[in-house]
Design a protein that fits this description.
The structure is a homodimer. By secondary structure, chain A is mostly helical. Chain A has helices at 23-43, 49-56, 60-66, 70-93, 98-114, 117-124, 131-153, 165-180, 188-199, 216-225. In chain A, helix 4 runs parallel beside helix 7, helix 5 packs antiparallel against helix 7 and helix 5 packs antiparallel against helix 9 (188-199). The longest helix of chain A is centred in the middle third of the chain and has 24 residues, at 70-93. The interface between A and B is large, with 64 and 63 residues. Chain A binds a DNA duplex through residues 21-25, 28, 48-50, 53, 58-62, 64-65, 69-70.
Chain lengths: 231, 231
DNA sequence: ATGAAGCGGAGAACATGTCTCCACTAATTT
DNA sequence: AAATTAGTGGAGACATGTTCTCCGCTTCAT
């Protein structure tokens, strides 16, 4: 994406004479990005850069020479995803059936976020996001409001559903998805379906729950898996 | 190491000649318990014992003289709650309407756990619980299964709901409740209602969502509030 | 008033993470 | 082949945070 940590990252710096990396350095940079993507996706943004370095097969020093700090690495990796999701919201607004549009958007949001713990933390928690990204998230609010209002006017979605219910539901589901990720990565779809069945104004019968429920032993594993920390 | 910690806490130990604490010591013990209850309830079990001590207005040394380690303190505080909730499940099985019984139990579970972050961590995550407590949690499985099966036989609850869906829903909701706790402690009721509307086999109209939705600014606060860590 | 019980809290021991420094290594140039 | 210099690894300085101990001093009970 950019050939040097500082150069090409954003600011067109006058002091930056477009010097290309040496071949081995560029290869290491790619390794670092690949390792970081894997490890942040799988285990979240709290993984240390020492671990990223080990995963990439390079020393920590190499990581810090290429990326000023963790935030720069994270932004390099994930900024694209945020834009992608905004585009999905805009495409949903062009769909003919407003109810389908809302549900389609919610499902895509969840698909993006459920399999990618780092992205979830970036989208859902301002702690990890710079102002740039929290601004990007603000962009969603009017789009989501429009999606909800239209789906309600359409008549199938309950009138008391609010715009903020959608991100809240996504947060709730993705939190659960994170807990269950090691055990059954797709289980969130079951509860999304349940919630959607709750979002209709009324209904006759049910949608089919799309994923088999957890076995009791699986539920145990989910609970044993991890514990949340605070701050 | 210290016989006081064990004596008087619960077990009638043969090595324990029933020596009562000095009056000031007993008063401090109560202060510690009160402070720990407050702070674990409000902020979860990860709060350090230094902080519990400060909250109680005593030195850390005093805490460690009274309780061998954190686990002992936590168990002293929370074991009762676990038994209480098991009793609620059993009472639900005696209720006349099976559907009401299931929903009543789920709501009580949530009420216990949503306002009490420490209890949630204890019930939901084996990390914090000794074998004793994870055994206690196992007791719930058959009770919950019975509640679900009966409510389905009754006809109002969808047939594809499984026993493990109930604890999973509780985990999911309480996780969301924890995120929103500082901002709107009761917001989980809104999403519980939504989920319950999804749990019926079919329905005409909707229940009224019991809590006003979050304003966009409140949603921001929830996201800014905290970020989860892993492992 | 005296001895035992109890106290506070500095700090040892440990864990975990970020980021720097510099003696080395190796790609590129000559 | 030698010289040049970008690039490297990883020990370790530094920061933060937690658990738990130690011991000089205080307070209670008799």
């Amino acid at each position: 994406m950019n050939e040097d940590a500082r150069c090409g990252a954003g600011q067109p710096d006058a002091e930056c004479p477009e010097r290309p990396l040496r071949r081995d350095a560029e290869r290491n940079r790619q390794r670092i990005l690949a390792a970081a993507a894997e490890v942040f996706t799988e285990r979240g943004l709290d993984v240390s850069l020492d671990e990223v370095a080990r995963h990439a097969g390079v020393g920590v020093g190499t990581v810090y020479r290429r990326f000023a700090d963790k935030e720069e690495l994270v932004e390099t990796l994930f900024t694209g995803y945020v834009d992608d999701l905004a585009a999905v919201a805009e495409r949903a607004l062009d769909m003919p059936d407003p109810t389908e549009a809302l549900l389609w958007f919610l499902e895509h949001w969840m698909e993006a976020v459920a399999g990618n713990i780092g992205l979830r933390q970036l989208l859902m928690f301002a702690t990890y996001a710079g102002d740039r990204l929290s601004y990007a998230r603000d962009r969603f609010a009017p789009l989501v409001n429009a999606l909800v209002t239209r789906a309600q006017a359409n008549g199938r979605i309950r009138a008391d559903l609010a715009g903020t219910d959608i991100p809240f539901i996504a947060m709730m589901l993705s939190s659960a998805a994170e807990y269950a990720h090691q055990v059954r990565p797709e289980i969130w779809r079951r509860y999304l379906t349940l919630l959607i069945d709750g979002m209709f104004a009324s209904r006759d019968g049910t949608a089919t729950l799309p994923v088999a429920p957890l076995a009791i032993t699986e539920m145990e594993s989910v609970m044993r898996g991890r514990a949340p920390r605070r701050q």
